[in-house]
Amino acid sequence: MDLTQGAEKHKYDRAKKMMLWFGIISMIMTFGGLTSAYVVSKTRPDWLTEFELPSAFFWSTLVIVVSSLTFILAKKYILSGNRRNASAMLIGTLVLAVLFVVLQFNGFSEIIANGYYFTGSESSITTSFIYVLVLVHMAHLVVGIITLLVVIYNHFKQRYKKGQMLGIELGATFWHFLDLMWIYLFVFLYFFK
């Protein structure tokens, strides 16, 4: 590869990374706005102060943290040329992502079983906010799972190796951001009742 091609590839890679970071910043602003509205709404007289987060949300937090670790290990294994272990870690990340979604829906079921509803005449502003925050995160998680599937597909097509890691780096950055965003939301909802 000559210097011109190398410079063009570097610019192309940098542009893709910048696009991802612009997207991440816009998501941070979205969640910042939603959590700010939550804080302001806490002063309402109809705010539920005795509301407890379901245990499924605790477990889903643990699962999402472990999924970040498996993604990190997958990258390490790809860089070291260990495709078998990299495949196992990527598939493990996908399984953990699906488990996270299942636990989130179990959490919603727990909330409803405790008599709290998200919409309709029996809902409260508190549960509606939780519903919106978690569903917006879940929408981003769907994009994260699609990204993970693309990374897995490209891995099995042997498109990643030392010096050609842009796709997996972008996917991992987005995945770790989603994990951190859930941890932020969980801690926020746990402490700001």
Automatic annotation (TrEMBL):
The chain crosses the membrane at residues 20-41, 56-74, 86-108, 128-153, 174-192. Keywords: Cell membrane, Membrane, Transmembrane, Transmembrane helix. Signal peptide: none annotated. It is a multi-pass membrane protein. GO terms for biological process: aerobic electron transport chain. GO terms for molecular function: cytochrome-c oxidase activity. InterPro entries: Cyt_c/ubiquinol_Oxase_su3, Cyt_c_oxidase-like_su3, Cyt_c_oxidase_su3-like_sf, Cyt_c_oxidase_su3_a-hlx. Gene3D superfamilies: Cytochrome c oxidase, subunit III, four-helix bundle. Residues 1-193 form the Heme-copper oxidase subunit III family profile domain. One of its GO terms (cellular component) is plasma membrane. PROSITE patterns: COX3. It is found in: Cell membrane. Pfam families: COX3. Belongs to the cytochrome c oxidase subunit 3 family. This is Cytochrome c oxidase subunit 3.
